[in-house]
Write a structure and sequence with these properties.
The chain is α+β, with helices and mostly antiparallel strands. It is built from seven helices and seven strands. It is about 30% helix and about 20% strand. A five-stranded antiparallel sheet has the order 4-3-7-6-5. It has a two-stranded antiparallel ribbon with strand order 1-2. The protein is globular and about 55 Å long.
Length: about 220
């Protein structure tokens, strides 16, 4: 259970998002630059959110309230977040932090760090989840003109990583050894300056290397040598 000081203000068991935070008061434990906040029910449906959340996803409250949080995230998030939400539901953790790709409207994306915080009910069971999204400022990193940066094999591996495929699955699909897959993934992690596979996918989308609006993911031909 979260420490009382770290909980959002609640009304009838659900978080209430303050318009302003007075000096000396604490926000939910999260990076200070986080502004996008949403309250989810136990089924991960959006119950309420602040203005910054709606502004970043570029959709009105009437359109997304009552919808799953996955409605404002890229399909790739379904390969990353379910395990985290399950741990909150099972009581195996009070929060998680992950990097994802979120949708801005229906045809744009942005990279964000997402924090999920469990909200406990009277019997210490899960009554909801508070989601904090911290959009990453990566626009300046996007090249004005796409530059080929991937081999055909790199592109296929990146597409597989974006679907959530494991090293063993990629090795089987691409007729490579597991060491070969790890070698190519490692090269791309360094090339994209990403600490892990989730961050690699996030940066690839934010840079326009992977197409938005298609599933399974596809690398943009202009980035392939």
């Amino acid at each position: 259970m979260l420490p009382h000081a770290d909980r959002p203000t609640t009304v009838s068991g659900h978080p209430e998002f303050p318009r302003n935070t007075r000096r000396g008061e604490r926000r939910p434990s999260a990076p200070q630059h986080v502004t996008c906040m949403a309250s989810l029910d136990v089924g991960l449906k959006i119950e309420a959110a602040n203005a910054d959340f709606f502004r970043h996803v570029a959709r009105p409250s009437t359109e997304i309230c009552g919808r799953s949080i996955y409605e404002v995230l890229h399909p790739s998030a379904r390969n990353i977040l379910p395990e985290h939400f399950s741990r909150l539901s099972d009581g195996h953790g009070s929060r998680f932090v992950e990097r994802v790709v979120a949708m801005r409207g229906n045809d744009r994306v942005f990279s964000a760090e997402i924090t999920g915080i469990a909200v406990k009910g009277e019997k210490d069971d899960l009554s909801g989840v508070v989601v904090l999204m911290s959009p990453q400022a990566e626009a300046a990193e996007q090249p004005a003109k796409p530059t080929p940066m991937l081999t055909a094999l790199d592109a296929r591996i990146l597409e597989c990583v974006a679907t959530g495929a494991s090293t063993v699955q990629m090795a089987s699909r691409l007729y490579l050894s597991r060491q070969g897959v790890e070698y190519h993934v490692g090269l791309m992690l360094r090339r994209f300056k990403a600490p892990n596979r989730a961050a690699l996918v996030s940066r690839a989308y934010s840079m326009g290397v992977l197409t938005v609006g298609s599933w399974p993911p596809r690398a943009v031909p202009d980035f392939v040598k």
